[in-house]
Structures are given as C-alpha cells and as structure tokens.
Amino acid sequence: MRPSTIKYYLKEGFVGLLKNRLMTVASIATVAACIFIVSFSVCVISNLNSMLHQLEDTIGIAVFLEDDLSSDEITALRDNIATIDHVTNVLYISPDEALESIKEDWDAGDLLDGFNGENNPLSHSFEIEIDSIENQNSVLTSLSSLSGVRNIRHAQTETDILLKLNKIVSIIGVVVMALLAVISVVIIMNTIKISVYTRRTEISIMKFVGATDWFIRWPFIIEGIFIGIIGSIIPMIVSMPVYSKSVSVLYSYLPITNIANFLDTYTIFSRLIPISLAAGIALGVMGSVSSIRKYLRV
Amino acid sequence: MLRIENVTKVYPNGSEGVKNANIHIEKGEFVFFIGSSGSGKSTLIKLLMKELNPTKGRIIINGINTTDMKQSQIPYLRRNLGIVFQDFRLLPNKTVYENVAFAMQVIEAPTRLIRRNVPTVLSLVGLSHKARAYPNQLSGGEQQRTALARAIVNNPPILIADEPTGNLDPDTAWEIMNLLEEINKRGTTVVVATHAKDMVDIMQKRVVALNHGVVVRDVKKGGYDDEA
Question: Which part of chain A has CATH 3.30.70.3040?
C-alpha cells in the first residue's frame, strides 16, 4: 500500500462522513443508543453478580472442636485445615472470644457473667472461609474426616439459594446481552446500508475504472471505525456520571450497605470502556463491510 | 486484441441478448457496433466489460480468456479498458480534474504520475480551462469529454464507448466522434456502440451490425444501411 493510497483512504473516509452528514449522525446515534442499552444491562448484571458474591463471602463454615485438645493439637488442626483445597482463611475463636461475641450479639448485659473463665461451656472453634460456595461440599467432606472435630455447622439452604440465583442471573445476563447485540447489529447494518445506498453510483464508477474491492472498501471501513469510536464514547460519557449518581441515590434510599455494596464507577467502567470501544468499532466495520458487499458485485 | 468467439447470452428471463456472435477486432481498429435499441449492442458491451458473463462461448481480451476469470481478477481486466457511457457517469462532487485523477488513484498510480498525466489528457480533450469546474457547471459535450479523459488517462489499449453521443446535440456529437478518432490514431483500439446513422455513414469505419442479437453484417469500411 502506497502512502498516497493510505492518505486517499483517510481523506475519502472523512470526506464521506462530512458529505453524508445526516447519515453519519444517524449511524453514530444508532451505535451510541445500542451501546448505551448494552452497557446499562452490563451495569445491572455485574452489580447483581458482585452482590451475590459478596453475600457468598458472608456464608462461612464453623468447626467446633473436642474439649480435651491441647493448644498444640489445635494449632496442628488449624494448619491441617488450611491445606484443604478451596480454603482461603482459617480463623481460630477461643471460648472466651466466642462468649464475648455472644454477649455483644444478644445484648445480654451481665446475664452471662457467670459463664466466664473456667465455667465457659463454649468450645474452641474455627471460622473457615472458602473461595466459592460451589466448593462447599468438597470442603465439608474433607473437614468431617479430621479427628478432633466435634461438630461442623454450615448454611446449606442459603448456599443452595445463592447458587441458584447466581445461575439464573448469569443465564439472563447472557441471553439479554446476546439479544441486544443481535438487535444492535441489525439496526446498525440497516443504517449504514442506507448511507452506502446513496453512494452506489460512486461505487459502480470505481468498479468500472478498475478499482479492486479492497480499494473501495477501505474508506467505508475508516468511516465505520470513526462511527464506532464516536458512537461508543458518547454513551460512556453519558452513563458514567449517571451511574455514580444512581448508585449514591440508591445508597441513600436502600439500607443495604451492610449486606452488599454496588461496584464503584471506576471498577465497572474500566472494564466497560475498552469493551464498548471494541464493540463499537467492530459494529461500525462489520456494518460498513457487509453493506457494500452487494454493490461490489458489478 | 479482442476476440468474441461463439458468444451467446441468454438472460435469466429467457430472452437472448446475443446469439452465437463471432467478432475479431485487431489492434488499432475503429469499430462501430450498430443496430436499433434491443439489438444486442449493449449486451455485447457489458459482456466485454465483464459486467455480464456469456452463457456460451468465450471472450478473449489482450490474449486473456475472460470467461472463466476469477472475480478478484476483474479489476485488472478493466484497467485494460477505457469505458465511456451515454450518461457520462461523472462523480458530481468532484471537479473535472479530480474526476480524471480519480481513475488513476483507483489503480494506485503514484501522485507524481497523476500530476503529469491528468493535465495532458485534459488538454487533449480541450478542457484544460475547466479543470476546476464541477460536472453540473459543464455542458453535455464537456461532461462527455471529461468522461473520455477519464477513460484514456491510464492509457488503456482498448476504449469502449456505449452510445457516447446519445445525449448530445449533433455538433457536440461530432466533437466527441472526432476525439474518438483522434484517440484511435494514437494507437488505441476503439469500439463504439451507436445508432447515430449519419456519423457512421460519414466516417466509413468497420461496421458490425446487430439485429435481435445476431451479427447480420460485418464490413471493413461501411455505412449504416449498406447491404451485406
């Protein structure tokens, strides 16, 4: 490719955008609207997902130990548990600490004072965190085979609900995104098709003076890239402040901070911006290339 | 240079555009394809440009059989053909200069060559003073001269003109015909499809007459109505 040819492609691409201003604006608006809707659903679905994961983290496994274990045996047992696959953290709770936390939770005042020290009926225990609740069962199996363990407690019902919710959200997410993506491609292709239709004479002239198909395509591809970039930047500029504002409004109305948090604007948009740029460019280019195909068959 | 061998074109609706045509054109010839509307002239031109493919037979241009040519090779075939249409087909948003330069840009000619060749052909067709004008500021004859300049700027060995004077008044038509003859004298093979009787009669060139898709007459120096 000659530099003069590249210059020609760029020039023709931008001249085309300016000449067909109305179609350019229409195409950019279509891409922007599609990307805006898709990013809106990405925001909702990622937040649901992240909240479910946050809830998962609150579900741990509690392991209560036999009363007659020495502190060495307890330490050995803790190290043992820590080596089990999927276990991310093991926290030792002494009977005294357990009593303190009960007192706090129940607001029992001095009602429980008599159970201090020697009289404490509570056992040594571990609070175990695992990487994902999907692996809970395998961890439980490993724990039950250890000696020195008196009782294991876990929240089976909550785990099952969370696992199901997680699956549902993922499936809905995939279906919604796929549908939106297909609809967007169709709309964008139609819009660009109209803009190409107005230039079919130009294409036919290029064909009979001996232009190769790629020579004809390049300016349209450059137009597509430009439409894609602008069409994806606009919804990002709009939705970023909208998102952070919505999150702060939701926090002030819904007392959910202690259960789960929304993803912060940076986390979500650092992923969303490159994805929508890529999607916008891909949509623009695909739309252009597929729309001119028909007119190249001369 | 240009061989049409046993070519038949049947359209999808069953009508025959050309029936078993055999035409051989040598390098440097000037040939008229004549006949009334629907006689098959335009079909023949489209077959030469490979806008259509023959149903039967083969077409050889510059030693290359175009019949079973790959789609991707067609642009390179067309670079051997300068083409002029009745309706000029200029780009309305480009100036005369740009329209002609466009044909060179399209085949990725170096800028230096474009700057040298475009003014040369523009002066050949007598349009140097209109280089910056847009097509809608030109008369019909000037538009067709621009189209001619575009067709010959890449020095194609063959120039094909489909009813080049169809939209022009007689005086202007003659200007175009004289230009075609001038281009022919410089060594380019020229094929003109026309039903401009008086011009064919006066110019006394080779005439291939078509009627209902059949070549009914092919004479070396002839008029429009001569008997075979």
Answer: 60-154
CATH of span A60-154: 3.30.70.3040
Mutate to test the interface with A, among B106, B154, B155 (most CBs of A within 10 A): B106
Nearest to B78 among A208, A213, A215 (CB): A208
- State ipTM: 0.83
Three-class SS state of A101: helix
Question: Among A5, A84, A16, which residue's Cα sits nearest to residue A225?
Answer: A16
- Strand B205-211 and strand B214-222: the pairing is antiparallel
Determine the residue type at B6: N
Interface residues of chain A, partner chain B, Cβ below 8 Å = 1-2, 4-5, 8, 19, 201-202, 204-213, 215, 298
**Which residue in the set B72, B78, B90 is minimally distant from A210, CB to CB?**
B78
Q: Are A220 and A288 in contact (CB under 8 A)?
A: yes
Report the candidate in B98, B75, B78, B196 with the shortest Cα–Cα distance to residue B146: B98
Q: Decide the pairing of beta strands B30-34 and B205-211.
A: parallel
Give chain B's domains with CATH numbers. Answer: 1-80+157-228 (3.40.50.300), 90-155 (no CATH)
Question: CA B64, CA B57: separation in Å to the nearest integer?
Answer: 14
Asked if A8 lies within 8 A of B89 by C-beta distance, the reply is: no
pLDDT by residue, tens only, chain B of 228 residues: 899 999 999 999 988 889 999 999 999 999 999 998 888 898 999 999 998 999 999 999 988 899 888 888 999 999 999 999 999 999 888 999 999 999 998 888 888 999 999 999 999 999 999 999 999 999 999 999 999 999 999 999 999 999 999 889 999 999 999 999 999 999 999 999 998 888 999 999 999 999 999 999 999 888 888 754
The answer to whether A210 contacts B111, with C-beta atoms less than 8 Å apart, is no
C-beta separation of B117 from B151 below 8 A: no
B93 CA: distance to closest CA in chain A (Å): 9
How many C-beta atoms surround the C-beta of residue B42 within 10 A?
19
Which B positions 29-88 lie with beta carbon below 8 A of chain A?
A: 49, 51, 72, 75-79, 83
Task: Report the distance separating Cα A183 and Cα B52, nearest Å.
Answer: 36
Chains A–B, number of C-beta pairs less than 8 Å apart? 54
* Chain A touched by B152 (CB under 8 Å): no
Quickly count helices (H) and strands (E) in chain B.
Answer: 7, 10
